[in-house]
Specification:
Shape: globular
Order of helices and strands: HEHEHEHEHEHEEHEEEHHHHE
CATH class: Alpha Beta
Helix content: 40-55%
Number of strands: 11
Distance between the termini: 11 Å
CATH architecture: 3-Layer(aba) Sandwich
Strand content: 15-25%
Radius of gyration: 17 Å
CATH topology: UDP-N-acetylmuramoyl-L-alanine:D-glutamate ligase
Strand order of the largest sheet: 2-1-3-4-5-8-9-10-11
CATH superfamily: Ribokinase
Length: about 270
């Protein structure tokens, strides 16, 4: 697809989300439950937050996509993710993994690797350090808490190799987002520095990917489109905000209200040649 075709496709996917209002099952962290639910609603999908073992099978039987986020991980929650993921995998619905803070502690890194080994993940979305910590040479990755100390540029090759070997889409987000399935790659040049001043905006990006994957069968296209749309919403939100607090509220409004004209003019989703 060309850049223009990807912009058109982003609009088409967004319209499909709002037409069908897919149910997004989040097993996510305490910090972002409220914000990711609001992002889901602003995009046009419907959120459900659930992690009790006793209802994982029942909930996973009727949702459209599963979004896994290890930001405030416990062994109980990890088992919930595995339970839900296995049912989702049997049903063939997309599963998104946000390995928050992987590489920062053994618990997070080992949990994310376990999820990857036991569940048919569709898309892995993280910052450069998180993504690279999951695979070869992870012990050499620099990470501070849940923040990356690696650049997207530095891990492009590794992400491409990993995506090809694992047969998954890998999305590395940063100043310029990079999405690959190991064979085709796309850059997203939308976004704003204010994202880094509000907690949970990376988790919001994974939420957007989940919503888009719920209705678009090509996870590479869905992921790139979601990140372009989410990044552009951040750009528009920054124009009318005075700081982090007003930016977060403005982001919800922008996700809800981005026009087709604005998306066609300002989306910068570019295939890598």
């Amino acid at each position: 697809m060309t850049e223009k075709e990807l912009s058109k496709k982003t609009i088409e996917i967004l319209l499909e989300i709002r037409k069908h209002q897919p149910l997004v099952h989040h097993i996510t962290n305490f910090v972002v439950m409220n914000s990711t639910a609001n992002v889901t609603l602003a995009i046009g999908a419907s959120p459900i937050m659930a992690h009790a073992h006793e209802e994982m099978e029942a909930i996973s039987a009727f949702t459209s996509v599963l979004n896994l986020n290890i930001g405030t991980l416990t062994p109980y929650w990890l088992d919930s993710m595995i339970l839900a993921g296995k049912v989702a995998g049997e049903r063939g619905i997309p599963i998104i993994l946000d390995p928050v803070g992987s590489g920062a502690t053994p618990l997070r890194t080992e949990a994310a690797r376990r999820i990857l080994s036991e569940i048919p993940i569709t898309v892995v979305r993280g910052n450069a350090s998180e993504v690279m910590s999951l695979f070869a040479g992870g012990e050499k990755i620099k990470i501070r808490g849940v923040d990356s100390m690696e650049s997207v540029e530095a891990v492009r090759h590794g992400a491409t190799v990993m995506a090809a070997e694992l047969r998954k889409v890998v999305a590395v987000t940063g100043e310029i987002d990079f999405v690959t399935n190991g064979h085709s790659s796309i850059e997203i040049h939308n976004g704003h520095p204010m994202f880094r001043r509000v907690t949970g905006t990376g988790c919001g990006a994974s939420t957007a990917i989940s919503c888009f994957c719920a209705v678009e069968p090509d996870p590479l296209v869905a992921t790139a489109a979601a990140l372009g749309y989410y990044g552009l919403a951040g750009e528009e939100a920054a124009k009318v905000s005075n700081g982090p607090g007003s930016f977060q509220v403005a982001l919800y409004d922008a996700l809800y209200d981005l026009s087709e004209k604005t998306m066609m003019e300002k989306l910068r989703i570019r295939p890598v040649r």
